[in-house]
Design goal:
Length: 197
């Protein structure tokens, strides 16, 4: 079985037929499935979609149970947690619905951890980190685009001279470079390359 465009988060099962891993969808399994939008809803109260998965959390005054349901809890109601709580050995602790969130100084609300600036996020070569609330993702560096080449997805240089996105002067030639480009005025002309006279 060969899949010309590849299966990003899945396996090739037949000619251009992908079987996606749980949490992913699309012809090439390159899209995150928003489980929170599924019917029946996977969570009783609130749902937070994450890359390839989802997390359940409860309204204030409820406690998240192992099966994803929410149980009323007087102790949780008294603590006033933003995203529900859990009781461990009689101690009430507020919860955050994702590892990319941490309890704020008040111990009740959750604040975002910027994985890009703390160095927790590791993006491969030619990719940059983009922080999101509760998580992050890796995106191709500027001047590169995601392409399926030699059996996998890579960030490949965009040839601005071919795609005609350079903005060079009519009297200049475009020279492509790795992740970038240059405009050079033609013989007999002077200037920046964007302006030649």
């Amino acid at each position: 079985a060969t899949c010309g465009h590849g299966c990003k988060y899945g396996e090739c099962m037949g000619p251009n037929k992908c079987k996606c891993f749980p949490g992913f969808t699309g012809k090439t399994c390159n899209q995150d499935l928003n489980e929170c939008g599924l019917k029946p809803r996977p969570c009783e109260h609130r749902c937070m979609n994450t890359h390839g998965s989802y997390k359940c959390y409860c309204l204030n005054g409820y406690m998240l149970m192992p099966d994803g349901t929410c149980a009323s809890s007087r102790t949780c109601a008294m603590v006033n947690c933003q995203y529900g709580c859990e009781e461990v050995k009689g101690q009430v602790q507020c919860l955050c619905p994702s590892g990319g969130l941490q309890l704020g100084p008040n111990g009740r609300t959750c604040i975002d951890i910027n994985e890009c600036s703390t160095g927790k996020a590791v993006c491969s070569y030619n990719r940059r980190c983009v922080n999101t609330f509760g998580s992050f993702y890796c995106k191709c560096q500027l001047g590169y685009e995601l392409k399926y080449t030699s059996g996998r997805y890579n960030c490949v240089d965009v040839n601005e001279c071919v795609t005609n996105t350079h903005g060079c002067s009519l009297h200049a030639e475009c020279l492509n470079a790795e992740g970038s480009f240059q405009c050079k005025c033609k013989q007999g002309y002077r200037g920046s390359g964007f302006d030649c006279s």
